[in-house]
Specification:
elongated; 9 strands; alpha+beta; nine-stranded antiparallel beta sheet; 43% strand
Length: 244
C-alpha cells in the first residue's frame, strides 16, 4: 500500500538555532534522561498552537497538509484510492505521552501514548468501491478518530556541521489503534443527498472494519508528517543545544 504526503513545512536553513526559552532542555548525560525527555515533550507539545519559525516548528493546531493519498485496501472493503487535499488536522497538540526516549547509542527515537482525538478535515476525491458499494464524489470531508493508542519509532543518524551535531531522521514507523472512527463525506454521488447519507451511514456502522482496511496507509501518512517535522526541527536545533 503506497501513501504519499505533501506537507506545509518551514524550510530548514543551514545555521543552527536555540530552542525557544519556554522549551525545556535535557542533558543526555544525566542519571534519568528519558524522564526529562518525557517531561520536555509533554510540556512543549501544548505550546505548538502557534508556529516557531526560528526552529522550523509548524503550528500543530491545525497541522496543515497539502495532499494525502492513501492507496486502496482490499477488494472487498476499501477498493478506492483516497485523495485528500488542503487538509487540516486538529488535536495533535493534545497528544499524551506515556513514554518517550532518545537513545543516542542505538540512534532511535521511540514514543507511545494516547491521542484523545484527531479531527481531519480535507477536500476529498473518491472513485471506487467501499464495502462493495460504489463510492464516487468530491467535496469537503471530516474524519474523526477517538482515543487513539499509538507507538512511534524513528531511526536517526548524527550529522556534523560546523563543529555541531544534528539528527537526521530516517526509517520511521507508527501504529494507530483508535477506539472509534466517524466519517462524513459531503457531496457524494454528485450531491445526491439520499445516496450520500446512506453511504455515510454504512461507513459509520462499519467504522472499524473500514479503517482497519486502510490503517497502514494512514499510519504511513502520519509517520511521514512527523518525520518531516522532526527532520526540519533538528536540522536547526543541534544535539549540543537540545541535549547537552
Amino acid at each position: 500500500m503506497k501513501t504519499t504526503v505533501a506537507l506545509l513545512v518551514l524550510v530548514a536553513c543551514a545555521h543552527s538555532a536555540n530552542l525557544p526559552p519556554s522549551f525545556k532542555k535535557c542533558n543526555r548525560s544525566s542519571p534519568e534522561p528519558a524522564k526529562c525527555y518525557l517531561e520536555a515533550a509533554s510540556d512543549g507539545l501544548p505550546q505548538l498552537t502557534k508556529a516557531y519559525p526560528e526552529v522550523n516548528l509548524p503550528n500543530f493546531e491545525p497541522m496543515e497538509i497539502t495532499e494525502l493519498r492513501i492507496a486502496a485496501g482490499s477488494q472487498s472493503v476499501v477498493n478506492v484510492e483516497q485523495i485528500f487535499r488542503n487538509c487540516k488536522l486538529f488535536g495533535l497538540s493534545k497528544l499524551h505521552f506515556d513514554e518517550l526516549n532518545f537513545d543516542f547509542d542505538e540512534k532511535v527515537l521511540s514514543a507511545s501514548g494516547l491521542i484523545p482525538e484527531i479531527d481531519k478535515r480535507c477536500q476529498y476525491e473518491f472513485n471506487g468501491k467501499i464495502l462493495l458499494l460504489p463510492m464516487v464524489g468530491t467535496g469537503p470531508s471530516t474524519i474523526v478518530l477517538k482515543n487513539i493508542k499509538f507507538t512511534y519509532r524513528s531511526e536517526f543518524e548524527v550529522v556534523e556541521k560546523k563543529n555541531k551535531h544534528f539528527m537526521k531522521f530516517g526509517t520511521t514507523t507508527l501504529s494507530l489503534d483508535p477506539e472509534s472512527v466517524s466519517y462524513n463525506f459531503e457531496n457524494l454521488f454528485n450531491g445526491d443527498k439520499q445516496l450520500g447519507d446512506n453511504m455515510n451511514k454504512v461507513l459509520n456502522e462499519n467504522h472499524l472494519e473500514v479503517f482497519s482496511d486502510v490503517r497502514k496507509g494512514y499510519e504511513a501518512g502520519l509517520a511521514i508528517v512527523l518525520k518531516q517535522v522532526l527532520s526540519n526541527m533538528f536540522a536547526k536545533v543541534s544535539i549540543e543545544e537540545g541535549f547537552d
